[in-house]
Write a structure and sequence with these properties.
two-stranded parallel ribbon, mainly alpha, thiolester hydrolase activity, 5 helices, hydrolase
Length: about 140
Amino acid sequence: MGDDCCNVESMGRITALIQRHLGKDTFVHSVKIGDSINDDHNAGFFGQIDQQLDKVCEELSKIPELKHGFNAIGFSQPSVHRLITFGSPHGGVSDIPNCMNPKDFTCRLMRTMVHHGVYTDYVQNKVIQAQYYRDPSNIKG
């Protein structure tokens, strides 16, 4: 949620940590959804998750180092040998977490949109978090 692939203050830090612990000979790839770091950050809030997942699968299928399978750490559920997740929404979420950075306008905008109409077609087709939000008192949504 608002992370991006390469920023040292975001997933770039995780990538560097893994590389440091596993060694320089280990291939580590951080998935980028947007065309820039800013677009990648915004893609964590807005878009259609199915389209993003298709893009990620296509990207991963073109990386020669991954052709025989891979281990993954992340916020998604592709076919992998091992999956280590950090707070991933396997069955959906019943609340939208607070923004890590209170000055992050895109996060605040996303939270406002979700809180004012999580099950509307517009929000469901634009806001990533709304697409896996599950109101426990309205499961069918």
